[in-house]
DNA sequence: GCCAAAATAAATGTATACATTTTCAGATGA
DNA sequence: TCATCTGAAAATGTATACATTTATTTTGGC
């Protein structure tokens, strides 16, 4: 496992408080490697939003930023329905079945908060990939990953989780019925509600 | 000037044919540096779409991909009007004046194709930045930069350029008049036409 | 002659050492 | 007292050397 993965895991787990400033040398010693792999990992993590430049020297673990979350959800609300629409004609029973399986997995308790987030993405990703639009998919995936940074810290209320799960089932039904308009609306609302819940939590 | 900038300039100028496979050692010798800065530059350029992984070994200059362009313009059509709408209430005479100046610069001939692309971005960026939405702005900027890769190779027809410029003026007028609906429609059409022209050119 | 497997070559990943840049505490002067 | 300059310490950038992984060629067997 590369240092990049280790560092990302630790960031996702919240082992570095927001605002913490990380130095290459300190990280190298902490993880028992030289500074070269540290530099590589930092470069990648900066691109993914897990770290930000801190002036000319060092990188910082970004603070929580409600405005950033708002932006991300605004974008998701516009891009994900588009991607789903492009996927709709290509959704066959195999893909729909896989989506169903993932939903079933999410209902098996107990399950960690981090796993819920991952499975949630797996569910949508499985549908999105059917569109065979790598570029659009890559951007949507990137936005999801950005959200993970925030979701990782909070444990979603059980109340929210069950509503979210109901929405997943409704969405899947609409897709099965080839009701594009309905599916689009359901997805937009699904994202909107998740975004509002997260922004509310952050303030 | 860092190697990253040098390499990017050369890629933007089309000095590496699409499909070319680049090796770290070869690049290091070509640019007279060690492999460390080469690795850093490659990592960044991969993230920006200027290079793609080539199996387990080496990176490739990506081929032209009409589907990628289509995706990018579909996204831009949905994100840029949103960003402009958020910017509208904050557009003051200073920002509008700067936008006007940039338009004037674009009309000064002669001007290179690369400069037109850059000025075109400056025009929209100047308006977008007024929204003060760094996250949304960053994604839009990224999509623009991706387009540059394609635009760099073609020299736009004069016919298209004059129409595009007329659209810029119409857009600016709508913004000055605080007509959000009109500005949104004009921008969406502006992007749509640019996308269609580019996709048509690529096929 | 063709395929598989070992040996060789080449490319990338990483460690150490050194160069350059940036930071910051403390001295100096107005 | 405050701003600014300066020099040491610290951080990042880069080169070289070595380790590991991946690609290619060669060789042996069928």
TrEMBL record, chains A, B:
<feature type="domain" description="HTH gntR-type">
    <location>
        <begin position="1"/>
        <end position="64"/>
    </location>
</feature>
<keyword id="KW-0804">Transcription</keyword>
<dbReference type="Pfam" id="PF07729">
    <property type="entry name" value="FCD"/>
</dbReference>
<dbReference type="GO" id="GO:0003700">
    <property type="term" value="F:DNA-binding transcription factor activity"/>
</dbReference>
<keyword id="KW-0805">Transcription regulation</keyword>
<dbReference type="InterPro" id="IPR036390">
    <property type="entry name" value="WH_DNA-bd_sf"/>
</dbReference>
<dbReference type="InterPro" id="IPR036388">
    <property type="entry name" value="WH-like_DNA-bd_sf"/>
</dbReference>
<dbReference type="GO" id="GO:0003677">
    <property type="term" value="F:DNA binding"/>
</dbReference>
<protein>
    <submittedName>
        <fullName>GntR family transcriptional regulator</fullName>
    </submittedName>
</protein>
<keyword id="KW-0238">DNA-binding</keyword>
<dbReference type="InterPro" id="IPR011711">
    <property type="entry name" value="GntR_C"/>
</dbReference>
<dbReference type="Pfam" id="PF00392">
    <property type="entry name" value="GntR"/>
</dbReference>
<dbReference type="InterPro" id="IPR000524">
    <property type="entry name" value="Tscrpt_reg_HTH_GntR"/>
</dbReference>
<dbReference type="InterPro" id="IPR008920">
    <property type="entry name" value="TF_FadR/GntR_C"/>
</dbReference>
């Amino acid at each position: 496992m590369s240092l990049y993965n280790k560092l990302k895991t630790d960031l996702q787990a919240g082992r570095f408080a927001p605002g913490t400033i990380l130095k290459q040398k300190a990280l190298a010693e902490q993880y028992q490697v030289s500074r070269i792999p540290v530099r590589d990992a930092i470069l990648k993590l900066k691109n993914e939003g897990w770290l930000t430049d801190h002036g000319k020297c060092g990188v910082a673990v970004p603070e929580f930023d409600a405005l950033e979350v708002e932006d991300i959800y605004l974008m998701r609300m516009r891009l994900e329905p588009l991607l789903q629409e492009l996927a709709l004609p290509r959704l066959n029973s195999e893909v729909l079945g896989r989506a169903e399986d993932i939903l079933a997995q999410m209902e098996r308790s107990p399950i960690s908060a981090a796993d819920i987030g991952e499975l949630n993405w797996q569910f949508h990703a499985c549908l999105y990939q059917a569109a065979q639009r790598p570029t659009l998919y890559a951007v949507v995936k990137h936005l999801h990953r950005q959200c993970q940074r925030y979701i990782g810290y909070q444990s979603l209320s059980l109340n929210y989780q069950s509503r979210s799960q109901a929405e997943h089932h409704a969405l899947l039904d609409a897709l099965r019925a080839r009701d594009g308009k309905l599916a689009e609306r359901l997805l937009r609302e699904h994202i909107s509600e998740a975004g509002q819940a997260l922004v509310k939590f952050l303030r």
